[in-house]
Amino acid sequence: MAAEWGQITPEEIISPISGVVEFSSASATPEKERVFITGLSTDSRNISPGMLFWALKGERYDGHDFVQTAIQESAAGIVVQKDWWERNSGLFLSDLRIHRSSPALAPAVITVQDTLKALGDLARWWRHKHKARVIGITGSTGKTTTKEMTASILELGDKTLKNRGNFNNLIGLPLTLLQLHEEYRNAILEMGMNHPGEIARLTEIADPDIGLITNIGMAHIEGLGSLEGIVRAKWELAETISQKARIIINGDDELLKQKAASSTGEIITFGLGRENDVIAKNIRNFGEKGFSFEISFQDTSFSIKLPVPGLQNVLNALASASVALCLDEIPGQIAEGLLRFRGIKGRFMIIRLADDIVLIDDTYNANPLSLKAALQSIETMAESNRGRIIIALGEMMELGSETVKAHKEAGKQVAGVHPFHFIAMGEHAFEMAQGAIESDMQKGKKGSIEIVKSHDEMIQSIREKMRAGDLIYLKGSRKAEMDKVVEGLQSKAR
Question: Which one of 3.30.365.10, 3.90.190.20, 1.10.600.10, 3.30.565.10 gives the CATH number of domain 349-493?
Answer without folding.
Answer: 3.90.190.20
